[in-house]
Amino acid sequence: MESSKLTMNGFLSIMLVVTLIIWIGTNDQVMGATTMDDEAEPTSPRWCVAKYGASEQALKDIIEWICAGRKVDCSPCREGGSCYEPDTLYRHASFLMNRYYQVNRQKGDCDFSGNGIEIEFEPSCGKCFYDLKSQ
To answer: Global pTM?
Structure first.
């Protein structure tokens, strides 16, 4: 009886997390995320990541534009780099978009043709630490 209670609690926790992930992917204004339309200068730390639902081609184009143009150091996303794993297009694009955003902190630098979003929560994962410009 006790193990089924734990299993049900675990299932409910997983369902809550999945629901939140889906909601975050469809709502630009969740958890302090802002769009570039906001007029006020942010007072809390901000990172820039790819929007959920951005097309693979858009993410590839963003990575190409940033890395081929040598806008920032892209080596952490290359094989063996601290941000290579998890090896997903979304994670690589998000890391590089943030790196560019932190260097070029101006209104519009996180837009990436509508494929980027500013967030207020730390997106770093494992050994991959996202840059943060001092406010």
So the answer is: 0.68
